[in-house]
Amino acid sequence: MNNQFKRCYESLEENLISDLDSLLGEISIMEVDDLDTHDTELLKGWYAVVNTDGIIAYFGEEAEAFRFRLDYINRLLNN
Asked: How far is residue 33's CA from residue 35's CA, in Å, rounded to a whole number?
């Protein structure tokens, strides 16, 4: 029984790491200046959290954007 639990846990851990890697690649931080949006002039110097669908959120500080990104990924993995 213990070996069965261990195999199940290892499989779950591999899938989680794979999901984490894909989400880290899919969700990123960009300077708004680098984006081609109509809001670029208003948000000059801001940071955007983006995924393959587009912009998720804007932040005035880069550290806040990174914090949000990690929290967002954590919520996706735990739902």
From this structure: 6
